[in-house]
Write a structure and sequence with these properties.
This protein has 304 residues and is α/β, with parallel strands linked by helices. It has 2 domains: 128 residues, ATPase, nucleotide binding domain (Nucleotidyltransferase, domain 5), CATH 3.30.420.40; 154 residues, ATPase, nucleotide binding domain (Nucleotidyltransferase, domain 5). It contains 9 helices and 14 strands. Helix 3 crosses helix 9, helix 6 packs across helix 7 and helix 7 crosses helix 8. The radius of gyration is 20 Å and the shape is globular.
């Protein structure tokens, strides 16, 4: 049995999967703490953890044909490392994962949102689609674009940062110097500010909205309106078959998707009377690892 493995190195957790090549059946899952900022053996702790985990998978499963990895930040042009990751995971920039893991075949490296979309296209909500984009709605807003069956990287790997779409030119600058960005207008990191200090998380805000709190409803539905306008704008630019929403905010389910559908009825351009379906991601927290595994299989010509 030929196996594909994917590692998703996140800020708080490392997730790993092994898939059966061809069928895509998951044969193993692992979750371990990242311990960002800690060191051991003169290396970041997460680097030691990933190396130990890969060795364990190889030993217990009898070998892994292809291995891929994803992480936050921009992947290098040669796909062997992360080239830019400000503020988190010190030590990751420039780390050559093929060399670090001592593997004979390349370990292709992807941005985590790119990998999550590849996972959804390969085995999730966008299975079989060739033109689709993903928005991950969480602390911030991430994104990725699949155009004509290929993950869009752009000239330097920056493509897909959809959360940094400008929706208010007069708004404050976000972390990328974009004024009034989708990320700042919708992301959880600004909930306290947007709610006048009443709520610290989106879950709290949505629960109050569901209970009939008028002010919570105002804040939440304004966020939904902003998201609808962003989706309508991105649809005009990318002309997708499907939009996939993932991340913790998307877990609000009908309390997000029902008002979002009403807003899109107002703002989406629908040539031939057809709107673009908006669906919830299916693979959840495993999308990145599954996408990294499928990317490795494609990279090395394995079926999967």
């Amino acid at each position: 049995m030929s196996l594909l493995a994917g590692i998703d190195l996140g800020g708080s957790q490392i997730k790993a999967v092994c898939l059966e090549a061809g069928s895509g059946r998951v044969v193993r899952r692992d979750t371990l703490p990242t311990r960002d900022g800690e060191t051991e053996q003169a290396l970041p702790s997460w680097a030691v953890t990933v190396r130990s985990l890969v060795a364990e998978m190889e030993r217990e499963l009898g070998g892994v044909a292809s291995l891929g990895l994803c992480a936050p930040g921009m992947a290098a042009a040669d796909g062997r490392s992360i080239a830019c990751m400000p503020g988190r995971l010190p030590g990751i920039v420039g780390l050559d994962w093929t060399r670090h893991l001592g593997r004979a075949e390349p370990v292709p490296v992807l941005n985590d949102a790119h990998a999550a979309l590849l996972g959804e296209v390969s085995a999730g909500a966008a299975r079989g689609r060739r033109d689709v984009y993903l928005l991950t709605l969480g602390t911030g807003v991430g994104g990725a674009v699949c155009a004509d069956g290929r993950i869009l990287r752009g000239a330097i790997g920056r493509a897909g940062h959809l959360g940094h779409l400008c929706l208010d030119p007069e708004g404050p600058l976000d972390v990328t110097r974009t004024p009034g960005s989708l990320e700042d207008l919708v992301g959880e990191h600004t909930v306290r500010e947007r709610s006048g200090g009443r709520f610290g998380t989106t879950r709290e805000l949505v629960s109050a909205y569901a209970a009939g709190d008028v002010e919570a409803g105002r804040v939440w539905l304004k966020s939904v309106r902003v998201l609808a306008c962003a989706i309508a704008s991105l649809n005009n630019i990318l002309d997708p078959e499907l939009v996939v929403l993932g991340g913790g905010i998307a877990a609000a389910g009908p309390r997000l998707f029902e008002p979002l559908a009403r807003e899109l009825d107002e703002v989406e351009w629908r040539p031939y009377g057809r709107g673009v379906p908006v669906v919830q991601a299916e693979l959840g927290e495993w999308a990145g690892a599954i996408g990294a595994a499928h990317h490795a299989g494609r990279f090395l010509g394995q079926a999967g």
